[in-house]
Each structure stands twice: as structure tokens, then as C-alpha cells.
Amino acid sequence: MTSSTLAKAAESAATDAANPLGSAPGYKWLVDDNNVNMAMAPPPPKAVTIDAQPQTVTVDLHRTALIVVDMQNDFCAKGGWVDHLGLDHTPDRAPIEPLQKLLPVLRKAGVHVIWLNWGNRPDLKNMAPNQLHLYKPKGVGIGLGEPLPGSGARVLQKDSWAAAVVDELKQEPEDIHVDKYRISGFWDTPLDSILRNLGTKTILFAGVNTDQCVLHSLTDANFLGYGCLLVEDCCATTSPGYCVEATLFNVKKCFGFVTHSSNVIEAISGAHPTA
């Protein structure tokens, strides 16, 4: 056995004897009585190229996350808040089917799935009047935290039926959940800290509403330095069509890239692998 082999064997034994600290697979410390090893190598890149607009995008799946925004009963289910407001909630259900296909593929590839949902405090103490006015502009009707007729579930309140992810989208134990309290998921939340701890560089965005919570979470992610891809068929809105057109235009022009779930699945399947 050569000296190099012996050294590697000794290093491996020392690593096995050390205690890992850290919840992110790509960033841990190894500690023992005498040493704190901060030099753990990240996993090697797992690069794939995704067809997108305005350009194709090559991403490292080990440093990519999917953020699913607000696929909650209040927006997407009969008897939810949007339904009780007299609006047609069915457009917000459009992402369900493509997400059912995309989510298992991403999980199998090691991409982190993050559910970013409204999950307000019962006392709404972190909600300024301007935020409450947004959803109750004349001071009447059903606003945030108020009970829905029939079920009594409180609008977008954490742990209520109203704020739960729709039944059709299966959540897994390894998925990550982040509550949000604004149209952007980065304000007053730990989302950025979680993404950075995971080593995330690229974010795929899905959910509702395309032109509101999805867009503003995406733009804030862009401002924070993340590469952003909007997965168009995994997003939806109850807003007029021109709102979607403007969103797609601005994402492609200023904030990132637009792709389709089939492009992501095809890239991960190995149709267009990149070494």
C-alpha cells in the first residue's frame, strides 16, 4: 500500500469517526474532540441543459430548488376564499396536473421541493394595515384570518384547511415548507437563509398567481442573486390574460427565463445531459 493510499485511508477513517453538523447535504462540518473540518467538498455538479426562453439554461441539479407558491385550498379549491369571493377558482387549478408529473422527477434527481404558502399568524400581528387593505379594500367582506362561510376555516391562517396545500398535490417528508406573509415570499421569512444553506443557485418557480405572488417572489430572488426559471405551465392566475403576457415578457426581458415542465423533465431524463 502506497503512502498516498495510506493517507487517504487515514483521512477516510478520521472522517468516519467525526460527527457531522448541518442539515444541508452539500454543506456540513465534521467535528471531533480536536478539529472542526469546514472543508468538506460539495457534491460534484449534476449539470443539465433546459430549453427555455430567451436562451437555453444549464443548471446544476444539486444546486437547484423548485418553489411551489400558494397551491392552497383558498386559491385552488371549491369552498376556498377565491370561490367565496365569487371568482372562478378553476384557472388556479391548471398547475396541478403538470406538477403531479414534475414533482417526482425533481425529487428523484435530488432537487429540493419548497412549498411557499401563505400561513398567517392567528393574531395577524406582523400584518400592517396596507396588507390587510389589499384583501379587504372597502373594509367589508371576508379578509385575511376571517372564517369562511360553511367550513369556518380562517382565510390563509397557518394550519387551517384554507391554507393547506390542495389534496391533489402530494407532499413528501423531505419537502421543505416556508410560511409567507406578503405577496413576495422573501419578506419576513427564512426562505433566503434556507436556500443559501442548501447551496441553491437556481430556482424553478411554479404556483399561483403567476402575475402576483409567483412573479414578486421570482423578482426578489433575482435581486438576491439567484438564477430564476418560471415554469410556465406549472403557473396560473385568475387575472386577465394581458397580466400573464406582461409577466412572461418581463421575466424574459429582466428577471430570468421561461420554460415548460416537459423541457425540465426531458433535460433530467438525460435527453440533453451536459457534462
Write the layout of secondary structure elements.
Elements: H1 3-17, E1 19-24, E2 27-31, E3 36-37, E4 47-50, E5 57-60, E6 64-69, H2 73-76, H3 81-84, H4 96-108, E7 112-118, H5 129-135, E8 176-180, H6 191-198, E9 202-208, H7 210-223, E10 227-236, H8 241-255, E11 257-259, H9 261-269
Parallel strand pairs: 6-7, 6-9, 7-8, 9-10, 10-11
Antiparallel strand pairs: 1-2, 2-3, 4-5
Keywords: Hydrolase
InterPro entries: Isochorismatase-like_dom, Isochorismatase-like_hydrls, Isochorismatase-like_sf
GO molecular function: hydrolase activity
Describe this structure in words.
With 275 residues, this protein is an alpha/beta fold. It folds into two domains: 3-37, no CATH class; 47-269, Isochorismatase-like (Rossmann fold), CATH 3.40.50. 32% of the residues lie in helices and 21% in strands. The chain contains nine helices and eleven strands. It has helices spanning 3-17, 73-76, 81-84, 96-108, 129-135, 191-198, 210-223, 241-255, 261-269; strands at residues 19-24, 27-31, 36-37, 47-50, 57-60, 64-69, 112-118, 176-180, 202-208, 227-236, 257-259.
Provide keyphrases for this structure:
single chain; 275 residues; alpha/beta; Rossmann fold; 2 domains; six-stranded parallel sheet; three-stranded antiparallel sheet; 9 helices; 11 strands; globular; disordered C terminus
Summarize the structure.
The protein is α/β, with parallel strands linked by helices and 275 residues long.
